[in-house]
């Protein structure tokens, strides 16, 4: 496991250490369990439960330093929220699927379940940092504790867990927390689940906007104000975030940033880090839209069929 003496404790800038991937303590489950198809995200086809041909015997990636250059940007944005090391070191007590092949099937079944639970822990932990959501902090803590308990269940219980039902309960509370946090923002826009692929949103005022599940693939968000916007589940692949302000954005994940493009002028929450592929320079944001510019759902082209970052294809 991580060398952090308190793996469930906070990291500098916020966030929990146990909800960050620790690849050195994982048996490369993200390189084996998900299926993916040759696309802009992956250079090859791979079946579920099949080890990637780039995976070495020591569970390290043979092309890790050159993933983007070799056509695997999808690998660089995947986030297991720490589920990989939890399954490897806690659920299966450090027994890997190569030396103990009898564990493979059950381990591969458990991994996506654990990933869902850890993702929910990430969002619940963030919701508890929202001062405006204090009236429901008790409910949030209860659901956090219940989700934590579920992650400690044995493999046979985890594979039988109704994850969808638990996610629905958590999501309802996260939605309430987000509404409380954004309640004081006037004129906030609602683009929940909207098709904003390739949308021109340069300089748009999206403070407190509802962007849950929105398709922001390739959207031009240069110089946009996304403070307090609810971004849970938004698809940000190749979105242009240069000069955008994401401080205080709700439920933003590292994988969403990794999937997008930004620069030195992009402002981020303190708990997240600037992706290594972003330049250290500041780019000209270009012509700015008028403050309050509304996005036009459904007018930006055909929706991509590739899987969202962090989602695995069905077997």
Could you explain how this protein is built, in words?
With 315 residues, the chain is mostly helical. The chain has two domains: 123 residues, no CATH class; 118 residues, E3 ubiquitin-protein ligase SopA (Pectate Lyase C-like, 3 Solenoid), CATH 2.160.20. It has seven helices and no strands. The longest helix is centred in the middle third of the chain and has 24 residues. The protein is globular and about 55 Å long.
Please report the total strand number as a whole number: 0
Nearest-integer average pLDDT: 88
Distance between the termini: 29 Å
Helices and strands, in order, run as HHHHHHH
Largest sheet, in brief, is:
none
Query: Helical segment tally?
Result: 7
User: What overall geometry do the principal axes of the alpha carbons give?
Assistant: globular
Report the portion of residues in β strands: under 5%
User: What's the gyration radius in Å?
Assistant: 20 Å
Number of domains: 2
Helix percent reads 25-40%
Oligomeric state of the chains?
single chain
Low-confidence stretches: 1-7, 286-293, 297-315
Derived from helix and strand composition plus strand pairing, the structural class reads mainly alpha
List keywords for this structure.
315 residues; mainly alpha; Pectate Lyase C-like; globular; disordered N terminus; disordered C terminus
Helix and strand layout, with pairings?
Elements: H1 73-77, H2 83-91, H3 104-127, H4 137-151, H5 155-158, H6 163-182, H7 254-259
Helix pairs in contact: 2-3, 3-4, 3-6, 4-6
